[in-house]
Each structure stands twice: as C-alpha cells, then as structure tokens.
Predict the structure of Glycosyltransferase subfamily 4-like N-terminal domain-containing protein.
Amino acid sequence: MKIWLPYTHAPTGSTTFVKALGRWLESRGHDAAVQSFPHAFQFAPWLLKGVAPPDGTEAIIYNSWNAPAFQRDGVRTICVEHLFVLDPAIRPFKSAPQAIFHDLFVRNFVAHGYARADRVVTVSDYTARAVRAEFPRSNPIAIPNGIDVERFSPVAAPPAEGPFRLFFAGTPSIRKGIDLLAPIMRDLGESFELRMTASESDCPDLAGLANVTFLGRLQQDEMIREYATSHALLAPTRLEGLPLSVLEAMACGAPVIASDISSLPEAVDDGVTGLLCPVDEPQGFIDGARTLAADPARREAMARAARTRATGRFSMDRMGEAYLTLLTP
C-alpha cells in the first residue's frame, strides 16, 4: 500500500510520530512517503492545498491542524489528533495570541479534518473524550502512541552514588509545567539533581540553581541514555495527548512522577510504574521524589514495572497494526 504522511515540521511529538510511523510501515513492506513542509504553513495550511500526493497514493495520514492542506477527495484518509488545544482544561495556560489563534483558526482546521476524514484517531482515550465533547459527530477512535521498545530500553543504570537524578524532557513551556520546576528543585535541595532538555535562556527561573543541569537539545541515543540513567522522569504537565517522553522513559526503566491529569493516568499506573501528583501543586512532586529516593527497592520495582507496561501497551508494533487495520478497506 502507498501511504502519504505529510506534515508541517516542528520539534514536537507529532513530528516524531510521523517519522516513526513511516519507518514502521516501510519495515512492513508498505510504501510510506513521509513528506515535510516548513513550520510556517501550520498557520496557513490552505496554501498547501495544491500539493499533489505522490503518484499511486492509496491513503493519507495527517495531523488534524493540517486538514485544509492534505485532505484529498477519493483517497482514504486518517486525521490524527495529537494534542487537542481546544480542550477547556488548557485555556488558563494559553497566552492571548494562542487563544485567539486556536479559537479563530485551529477550530476551523480541525473541524474540516474531523468532518471529511474517513477516520478520526486520537492518541489517548482522554483526547477522544475531549474531542467528542466539542465535536459530537467526530466519532474518534483512540490508538495510543507507540514507541520502538527495542531501541528505547534500559541500556544503563542510574548512578548508585550522588544525588537522586530527575530528568525533564520536553518543550520548556507553561503547559509542560516549566514554571513549577524552580520551586520543586529549591525545596529538594542538593540531594537531588534535575537534568533537562533545555538551555538556561529558556528557563531563567532555574538558571541560578546549582542542582539543575541544562543539556540542550539531545539526539535520540543521548535521550535514551538520559532516560536510562535517571532515577525518575519528572513531568509536572497540565495537559497531554499522550506524551512520548513518558512512554520512552518507562521503556528505558525510569519510573515517572507526573501530574494526575488528562491522559497521564492511561500511561502511569500510580504506585506501580510511577507516582501521580495533584496538578499545579509542587509539594506533590517534592514528596514523590523524596519517597522514591528514600526507598531504592521500591524505585527499582517501579522501574521494572514501567518497562513491562511500556513493552506491553505502548509498542510501535501495536500502534502500527492498529493504523493498518483502519487503512484496510
């Protein structure tokens, strides 16, 4: 089958998803045409309406925001919702320009995609419910994000001596809870270290803290090693579709200390593969980190359980087969 996977590039999970799904489809003998367009087209996707799909295209998988760009009549289409920004739960954490853009433009983009696609897919049950609440006729189906669980694996172990190592992976944004990291790390003190995929300029509140290490943007092999050598992933987020960082960390044997919100309970089994904390309350994350640091045996049991959960529920094979089922007439 020839499948077109066009996308507007951004350094986010949706780009990672498209590339990974394309590789998986190729590995199964399909012709997956992954095609990138500049990020600016995300704000005016209709400008790409004239782009012709590759010859012989039988199906198209596209991001909901890009529906006006890549929806084509006569070809089977799957519209994927990665992060539903129209969810009322995220409104308090948007800037005024973001809120205006989402309400005036993105609402129309996704409505177009939901109405005209053969199937609407969301990356979590939570996102499916949120989409259905705003667009009752959309009839989304949830296919959880998947990762390469052979590549993302416990390639190393956390250090036995020194500070308890936390890792923050993701865009340093308010939605991701970047503003909560400073109070968390100030309270935890020198017995804890936070390593994060950001630069000091991204996080001025954290720049002066001795227990924070800025790693900048990492390559995949470097990310895998950071996951595997961390005692836990720290994810004080306010809304997620289904974050790849959480799935990748679990696959690498890192328990997750995350907000008890949106899709996170679908990934993290509280008390088994990590700890879920009240959203917007730094104290919960502080207590969670101290709990795991004080009980190495419990942390190691969570690490094993996290790996088992990731391989059993969030593998790329499981996700890919679900998409192929939808593509089969």
